[in-house]
Amino acid sequence: MIKACIFDLDGTLTDTIESLTYSVGETLKEMGLPPITKEQCQSFVGNGARVLLDKSIRAAGDSEALRLEEAMEIYGRIFDENCTYHVTPYEGITALLKELKERGVKLAVLSNKPHRQTVKVAEEIFGREVFDAVQGQQEGMRRKPSPEGISAILERLGAAKEECLYVGDSEVDIATGQNAMTRTVSVAWGFRTEEELKAAGAACLIDRPKELLKLL
Description:
Helix content is 44%, strand content 16%. It is α/β, with parallel strands linked by helices. The protein has helices spanning 17-30, 38-44, 49-59, 68-82, 93-102, 115-126, 148-157, 171-180, 194-199, and strands at residues 4-7, 14-15, 88-89, 106-114, 133-137, 164-168, 183-187, 205-206.
C-alpha cells in the first residue's frame, strides 16, 4: 500500500522553465555574457543551481567556468526575486494532488532547487496546506541523486521506502529513486523526452498525472 508520494518540483509538478531561463539570462546579462537558449537551459536543469550556472556560463563563453562564484552570487539574488516568474502547475497536477490527499496519501516535494526557493514555489503555487514536507537543496544534505533527501522525508512522514512512490522527470530522479530503493515513476511531460528517460532506465513512465492513481 502506498502511504506517501514524493515529487520532484521543476518539470514534474510545475513548469518553471520560464523562471529559470529568465533568471539565467539576467545573470548572464549582468556579467556581460551572451544569453543561452531556453532549450539549453532546460537541458542544464536537474542537478541544482551550481551545475546549472556552471553549464550556462560555459555555454555563454566562459569555457573554464572561471566566473562561477560570481555567477552564483548574481543568480542567487535574481532567482530569489523571480523564482515564481510565469510558473504554473502542469495540467492535471492540482487535481491529482487533491485526489491523493483525499485518499490519505502523504505528499512531499524533493528538489535540487535551493531550499528557500523550493518552499516559495511550492507554497505560492499550491498553498501551504498541500504538502506534508518540502525539501530543497541546502547545507548538510547531499543533493539528488543522493538518497538522503528521500530518507529524511520518509522519516518525517512515518513511511517506509516500500510504501513510497518517488515521481520525477529526469535521469537524476531515476537515479535518486534507484539509490533510495523506492518505486520510481517518470513523467513524460517534463524537461526530458520519453526517449531520454527510457535511455536513463525509466522503469515506469506515465503520460498524464491521473495515471499515477493507478499505481497506488
